[in-house]
Amino acid sequence: MVFEVMKVPTTPFEGQKPGTSGLRKKVKVFVQPHYLQNFVQATFNALTPEKVKGATLVVSGDGRYFSKDAVQIIIKMSAANGVRRVWVGQNGLLSTPAVSAVIRERVGADGSKATGAFILTASHNPGGPNEDFGIKYNMENGGPAPEALTDKIFENTKTIKEYLIADELREVDISTIGVTNFSGPDGPFDVEVFDSASDYVKLMKSIFDFELIRKLLSSPKFTFCYDALHGVAGAYANRIFVEELGAQQSSLLNCTPKEDFGGGHPDPNLTYAKELVERMGLGKSNSGVEPPEFGAAADGDADRNMILGKRFFVTPSDSVAIIAANAVGAIPYFSSGLKGVARSMPTSAALDVVAKSLNLKFFEVPTGWKFFGNLMDAGQCSICGEESFGTGSDHIREKDGIWAVLAWLSILAYKNKDNINGDKLVTVEDIVRQHWATYGRHYYTRYDYENVDAGGAKDLMENMVKMMSSLDEVNTIVTGARSDVSKVVNADEFEYKDPVDGSVSKHQGIRFLFEDGSRLVFRLSGTGSEGATIRLYIEQYEKDPSKIGRDSQEALAPLVSP
Q: What's the rounded Cα separation, in Å, for the pair 93 and 533?
């Protein structure tokens, strides 16, 4: 079929500014005439010609409501803009980490490689006709677009007058694997629908010792549970955990991807992963059934993870530190050593202590995975993480939820390899408590104030910047509230100069540092679709072995309670 290119007149929309996680809005915003098209064309216009004309692009996402329509629109616009071919995961499904893997690893039958991707996701936000949709562009390294490009996209959205689309191009059946061929003014244009899991599974098998993990999962003493929260992780869970590693089918929860995530909130934490939390013995009810030894959950696009032991929660900050501390011995990919480690600024300093002890390069970066990607591309970082349930490594340029689960299973398998038939296996809780005994414990919590007035949030942050100039005044306020709280000895607004490209990121959060190593961090977040979110992070470091077993609420009470 030969298609024609249409130039469709349009006018700009306000507020099409992509953040660190792309553009996120309510579905009702995205379905407005020309809204998605404007953003996609603004992206094409921001890219250099060789990244568009004759290029190969990936278009897929987490399967949330409006995704299938969006895939067809982007295919038609890609054809009109001179793209040579589009790769689509079957049913439009690819996890965000899998997209990164496909860009970096997949080679087409004709030798083609992808130069970028449109990822359709709003991550851990709810889905459905009245909920959230999102889109972001990833680069040829598999990572999110840098700020220079997202700024250019935003500027283009403010001046756009027309977009290109092959509107009469027939819709591609994205449920069936195969290639659909078209012809247009620039020559042939192909759409290839491929298996969503194969490339990602191949990559995971090259990183981890699947045989060792399989032995752990085959032990009658080890039980396992994985909850995809009806997100795209379900497209990988059966293939990896059941077919490759031999787990029971019954160990998978909510692993059928759904457009509305089953009416739930696909955020892997103790609040929203309710069924898993109950099964792991951390809920309010007591079923009398013995919980599994290991549990994990994923978010909508499978880049985030939550790790649980039997009646035991592992904080994301502890998780990345424990993975880093055990990676060289337990994970074949890291057997020759770690290049360095990194964490986002709000994440607890548990990783810092591991880095210092193991003499590793260490980096503290702003929130946003692209900062890790720069370090990885420069060969300076192997493992990194965020407190917001994001963990990953340099195998791709996105955080990777299933990778984190396999990392934990690898550590458990390694710790138990000589004891697989013994009386008692080393547990998740054993590993965490041993880590605390070795490195100390970072008590940590976060409070989110969501959908607050954006103007008021900005005023609050500006007022705290002013407070930083008078620590005596701050300490008067602190001691007036709690006399048992340590003195504030430093305060700053976090600013990051990228050691790779020299770029400077300002206004990344306000930090109050206490004499005893405690921290209070305030940060404006851009991951919501409406209003502003203020996040407050509270951290207390404890080295005394007699005090590392306290309840977090008790340990943090002086910093939390008025």
A: 29
> Kindly report the CA angle at 220 between 216 and 222, in degrees rounded to 5?
50
List 123, 317, 382, 410, catalytic entry: 123
Residue 416: count of CB within 10 angstroms of its CB:
21
CATH superfamily placement of domain 6-195 = Alpha-D-Glucose-1,6-Bisphosphate, subunit A, domain 3 (3.40.120.10)
> To the nearest whole number, what is the mean pLDDT of the chain?
94
CATH H-level superfamily of 442-560: Alpha-D-phosphohexomutase, C-terminal domain (3.30.310.50)
Residues 437, 317, 416: CA angle, nearest 5 degrees: 55
β-pairing, 510-514 with 488-493?
antiparallel
Do residues 402 and 284 make contact, with C-beta atoms less than 8 angstroms apart?
A: no
Q: Which residues of 449-476 are buried (b: 16+ CB within 10 A; e: fewer)?
A: eeeeeeeebeebbeebeeebeebeebbe
Residues 6+ positions from 228 with CB-CB distance below 8 Å: 234, 237, 252, 253, 254, 255, 257, 297, 298, 302
CA 241-195-79 angle, to 5 degrees, is 145
CA distances from 103 to 73, 86, 199, 225, 336 (A): 21, 12, 10, 30, 25
φ, ψ at 411 (rounded to 5°): -65, -45
From the CB of residue 150, how many other CB atoms can be counted at a distance below 10 Å? 22
Helices (H), 416-544: 428-439, 454-467, 471-481
Q: Which residues pair with 297 in a beta bridge?
A: 227, 306
Nearest to 230 by CA among 245, 251, 213, 252: 252
Q: Using one digit for the tens of pLDDT, what is the confidence trace for 453-497?
A: 888 888 999 888 888 888 888 888 887 777 778 888 999 999 999
**86 in Cβ contact with 59 (< 8 Å):** yes
Residue with tokens 């899998």: 98
Q: pLDDT tens, 291-310?
A: 999 999 999 999 999 999 99
What pLDDT, on a 0 to 100 scale, did the predictor assign at position 529? 55
Say whether 352 sits in a helix, a strand or coil: helix
| pLDDT exceeds 80 at position 168 | yes
Candidates 3.30.450.40, 3.40.120.10, 3.40.50.10890, 1.10.287.130; CATH matching 199-439: 3.40.120.10
- Taken in order 199, 24, 389, 269, the sign of the CA dihedral is negative
Residue 503, token pair as written in the block: 């770029």
| Predicted confidence (pLDDT) per residue in 331-374, tens digit | 999 999 999 999 999 999 999 999 999 999 999 999 888 899 99
Instruction: Check if 123 is active-site.
Output: yes
What's the CA gap between 225 and 408, in Å, rounded? 13
